[in-house]
Design goal:
The protein is an alpha+beta fold. It contains 27 helices and 23 strands. The strands form 4 sheets. The chain has a 6-stranded mixed β-barrel with strand order 4-5-10-7-9-8. The radius of gyration is 34 Å and the shape is elongated. The two termini are 39 Å apart.
């Protein structure tokens, strides 16, 4: 044992005395495993870490299945899902949180509110930390005035005082009794958390056909998700056949794992993140293999001497294995440090709702990092030993001479070069796809003018402003007062602005007479909406002040809606909404105008259909539903710095409606940037990995060519002795290296196409289709050819300087 330890120590001491190789090899591997550790740690803590509830794997989300969205249900569908075979219990939670006004125990403010039924917490295995849960009957047609507080909100608003139980909290002007405080784990378990929880309004009519909830089911012992999913599909298809809005629509129903549903959108992004990290790791592994091959080649004379003196194979392998062990341990240490740095950076970049406000490097991630590092270096060392011993074989001497390489060994070098280039091309093409999308987004022509437009959002207190008429009157007074602020040129109120997200833009089914329903972006807007945003009128007229409540119902549609629903001839036609918010008969309006699409023709996916109605003509039932989703929005075209208007606008709201909190303030430029944020995220992710790939590929190409020159040193010396010029020798090595790079480019483009197709969902989630196109492909090829030329040039020049007399001295 002492002999083996002495051999290992001698190898370590030699490496530490001249640490150049150790730093290079361990640094290359550390970059790969460090990036991979960060990606895996993120995936592990967000996607793989079990939810903090009992038997979390037994929870399912059931309902209507849509790509990149959790399953959703309506109240009517939820009633149809009761008493499923194989389901122990089922509960309901709102798909998104509502912005509500509260007052009591502090200044009025707006909070995020989630709606649940009394079965959700027992189904998920959660008990309130203080107080009690909702009970049956409190979540009926007329929900009881009771409220549950989240742990964070309870700590912030009530300083963690248990006496908060039983106190009154005004929610939208109505007193609610606080009956319980939820544990900290609740926010990490639900889809969207929420500051407060209210009983869901379970009514089978009215808005009962509208999606907006997620049903959570707990499997009974012995039941399978597939069996439950089949029941869900059968029951909900029967409900759809009886529904006015869903009849005839081709939709899928079923069940999926609740944790997967909870993270379905983020998961697609993390899959791309992990895939890019794995490609970087593969490049790093190829590099380390090549560097250890080079190290073994330098030791081949030592190995030959030991073999001639009768040393066993294991004894000959110990020095290189000991050195590779040191490389592996060093790489693991550096990799863990890089991973810690990466986790700290991500914690500062990612929003708190993604990380939960904390993220740390898990112990099993550290263990996996060390194992990958050690296994990679030991396997590479074994390959290097095999290569070094092969140099002394009879076949090698016969084919390549004392320092030459056989044709079979030459194929190894070719494979290493091709592998590195292929992997690098795939990453660079992914990065190029996002850069192309970012470039296109920077030059998009939107259908509205978003410059110098400030925005303000607030949710009118429902007790004070219960219907459309009161909300319209509040908006009129706010708009009139805002126009008096110095620097404000124009103001308009609307239920949503041009590029708000889906929920604030209120998608709902609408159709032409006798046609199937299609989902449109519904916007109730003020008279000056189109003028303020500079939207082009293509046909007909815009709204006027005569389009008021009690007058003829009118509507304006976007160009895309006119084409899809009316074949381009929408003017004067009727638009219908068989929405349950209009009980008794479909809501019908005459189309009086067609405007340009707000979304650009390219760059943001499929252009949605848009439907505009006068704010004063919005139905009360529809306003009630809308207010559970988002606030009212006000847009102001101003002069000068937008940020300077914040204090003045808050003062206006306080003057017009003293008890009315302001939800948010911003600008339309920020809203547009947020709409395109996915491509920037994708460019950042793929760009970091592409830069690592270029660095590692350049290092690897240089090392591979150095190995090839060293392996063919005897052959090159013979060629020089026979009259080959230094230029010819350099050209020989350079052309061989560039030919392998060309093969790698070809295979890399094929791999990039497969990569973008397999991960198309991830690319779409980040705002691009993943297609790289001829410009991206050409740019990647030119970049890698130039990079490869530089990497091959130094070894090629070294080949041209080989002295034939020195090489042939030993013959």
């Amino acid at each position: 044992m002492n002999v083996w330890l002495a051999e290992v120590w001698r190898a370590w001491r030699a490496s530490l005395r001249r640490p150049g190789f150790l730093l290079l090899a361990s640094g290359v591997l550390a970059l790969g495993i460090g990036a991979n550790a960060v990606a895996f740690n993120l995936v592990d803590q967000i996607l793989l870490k079990p939810l903090p509830v009992p038997q979390a794997s037994r929870l399912l989300a059931v309902g209507r299945l849509e790509p990149r969205w959790p399953p959703q249900v309506s109240v009517r569908q939820y009633e149809a899902l009761q008493h499923l075979e194989g389901v122990r219990s089922i509960g309901l939670q709102s798909f998104v949180t509502a912005t509500l006004n509260i007052a009591g125990n502090g200044v009025p403010q707006q909070v995020a509110a989630a709606y649940i039924d009394h079965s959700l917490l027992p189904t998920m295995g959660i008990q309130p930390q203080f107080g009690r849960n909702f009970v049956a009957g409190e979540d009926g047609t007329q929900p009881a005035p009771v409220v549950l507080l989240s742990h964070a909100f309870w700590k912030l608003r009530y300083n963690g005082n248990p006496d908060a139980i039983g106190q009154s909290l005004k929610v939208e002007g109505m007193p609610h009794t606080i009956i319980g405080v939820l544990p900290e784990t609740f926010d990490a378990t639900t889809l969207n958390g929420g500051d407060i929880l209210l009983p869901a309004k379970l009514t089978p009519d009215g808005s009962g056909d509208q999606l907006g909830y997620v049903a959570v089911a707990r499997l009974a012992d012995g039941a399978t998700p597939a069996a439950v999913g089949a029941q869900v599909e059968a029951r909900l298809k029967a409900v759809a056949d009886r529904s006015a809005t869903d009849r005839g629509m081709h939709v899928r129903y079923g069940a999926m794992d609740y944790q997967a549903a909870k993270n379905v959108q983020l998961g697609t992004v993390l899959v791309l993140f992990q895939a890019c990290a794995l490609l970087v790791l593969l490049i790093a592994l190829v590099n380390v293999t090549n560097l250890l091959l080079l190290r073994a080649l330098a030791r081949h004379r030592d190995i030959a001497v030991r073999s001639a003196m009768g040393a066993s194979s294991l004894r000959m392998a110990v020095p290189l294995l000991g050195e590779s062990l040191l490389v592996g341990l060093s790489a693991a240490g550096f990799g863990v440090l890089l991973a810690l740095l990466g986790v700290a950076i991500l914690l500062g970049i990612l929003p708190a709702e993604v990380t939960g406000g904390e993220m740390h490097l898990g112990m099993h991630t550290v263990v996996l990092t060390v194992l990958v590092s050690l296994i990679a270096t030991l396997v590479s060392a074994m390959l290097g030993l095999w290569r070094a011993r092969a140099i002394s074989s009879f076949d090698d001497l016969r084919e390549g001479g004392r320092s030459g390489g056989t044709r079979y060994q030459g194929r190894i070098y070719s494979a290493l070069v091709i592998a590195q280039v292929t992997l690098a091309v795939a990453l660079l093409c992914a990065c190029g796809s996002f850069l192309r999308a970012s470039w296109n987004n920077a030059h998009l022509r939107w259908g509205f003018d978003y410059t110098n437009v400030a925005t303000l959002a607030l949710s009118p207190v429902r007790a004070d402003y219960p219907d459309v008429q009161s909300v319209t009157e509040l908006s009129r007074r706010l708009v009139d007062r805002m126009r008096q602020v110095p620097g404000v040129l124009d103001v308009v109120a609307a239920t949503s602005l041009p590029v708000n997200d889906y929920f604030s833009t209120f998608g709902m089914p609408a159709h032409a007479q006798g046609q199937m329903p299609t989902y449109v972006y519904y916007r109730a807007v003020g008279t000056d909406y189109f003028r303020l945003f500079g939207m082009r009128l293509l046909r007909g007229r815009l709204f006027t002040r005569d389009d008021s409540k009690g007058g003829e119902a009118v509507a304006i549609v976007s160009q895309t809606a006119a084409r899809r629903m009316y074949g381009g001839h929408a003017l004067g036609q009727q638009v219908l909404m068989d929405d349950a918010a209009h009980p008794g008969q479909p809501w019908t309006a005459r189309i009086v105008g067609v405007v340009d699409d707000t979304f650009p023709q390219q760059g943001v996916g499929r252009i949605p259909s848009e439907l505009y109605v006068p704010l004063a003509q919005m139905a009360d039932a529809l306003m009630t539903r809308y207010r559970t989703i988002g606030p009212m929005h006000y847009a102001l075209r101003v002069q000068g710095d937008l940020a300077s208007y914040g204090e003045a606008l808050r003062a206006v709201v306080a003057e017009v409606a003293p008890e009315q909190p302001v939800a948010a303030m911003g600008s339309m430029r920020e809203a547009v940037a947020e709409q395109l944020d996915g491509t920037q995220t994708g460019a950042w992710i793929s760009g970091v990995f592409a830069a690592l790939a270029m660095l590692l590929a350049g290092t690897g190409l240089y090392a591979v060519m150095s190995v090839a020159v060293a392996a063919r040193e005897h052959e090159l010396g013979v060629r020089a002795a026979l009259g080959a010029s230094p230029m010819r020798l350099a050209t020989l090595m350079l052309s061989g290296g560039m030919a392998r790079i060309a093969v790698g480019l070809t295979l890399g483009l094929i791999l990039a196409g497969v990569f973008s197709r397999v991960l198309s969902t991830s690319f779409n989630q980040l705002g691009t289709d993943g297609a790289f196109g001829p410009w991206v492909a050409g740019g990647v090829c030119v970049l890698l050819l130039a990079f490869g030329l530089l990497a091959c040039l130094v070894p090629a020049i070294r080949a041209g300087r080989i002295q034939p007399m020195r090489v042939l001295q030993g013959d």
